[in-house]
């Protein structure tokens, strides 16, 4: 966002908080400004302690299931140090996996599976550059290894290289049109390039495969919102919040959809419900609430 836009959002948020404070004081839900400061601090500490249990709430989706590799690359068909490395990686033994895979790669430099799983090791070790190099090596060794193409595309997306991401994800899609992670990343890449209809097509296909995935529903809703199609976006967000009730960004998007539909009372109610539900609400939810109050 530009500096002027950020400043406008801050001003709106401050105004919303001021109005909210007056509203609560009028309803007898907030103490007056003259309340001693030490009591205010004590009250905040009490609230923070009371909310501590909420912070333990886990708000995330299950990992999307992908077809990791084409036939002929299943774990059962692997042998020796390659099988040991893959098995260790799946068991969470990262160092053991890396050592076995590196030994195998040194003896078999043309192995796509060794490079692919070393790329997974690098991802888990938070080494995206090394991971990208290994996934590219895997693709060079086996151009049909769509899982490596998928991870490569995701890394390009994270780096903002949208053209490269779309190129490799299109290749992955041609090889595995029913792989949900390929579809999800392809939807993101198409949306980045402004290909809204194509992005929706990919996301909707992914939603059919994984219909109870909150993030996928949210990402699909965002594309509808970019097209100012508020009603279909709202329906998807309500589904996402049924699955993940503590999904703060989805609450913010729901408020924005209701705002876009002109339903300001419902938008304010949704914002208040989101703030009451989410243990640590994101700034987006506060800003969405502020925009609603400013336009009332």
| Overall average residue pLDDT | 81
Query: Over all CA atoms, what is the radius of gyration?
Result: 24 Å
Ends apart, CA distance between termini: 24 Å
Total count of strands: 0
Percent of residues in β-strands: under 5%
List the total number of helices.
15
Q: So what's the oligomer here?
A: single chain
Q: Bin the helical content.
A: over 70%
The succession of helices and strands, N to C, reads: HHHHHHHHHHHHHHH
Structural shape: elongated
Tell me the structural class.
mainly alpha
Largest sheet: none
Q: Uncertain segments of ≥5 residues (pLDDT<50)? A: 1-6, 19-55, 66-72
Concise description?
With 296 residues, this protein is an all-alpha fold. The chain has 15 helices and no strands.
Task: Describe the protein.
The N terminus is likely disordered. It is elongated, with a radius of gyration of 24 Å. The protein is built from 15 helices and no strands. The longest helix has 24 residues. Helices cover 71% and strands 0% of the residues. With 296 residues, the chain is mainly α.
SSE inventory with pairings:
Layout (H helix, E strand, L loop, with lengths): L2 H24 L10 H14 L29 H11 L3 H14 L4 H13 L3 H14 L4 H13 L3 H14 L4 H13 L3 H14 L4 H13 L3 H14 L4 H13 L3 H14 L5 H12 L2
List keywords for this structure.
single chain, 296 residues, mainly alpha, 15 helices, 71% helix, disordered N terminus
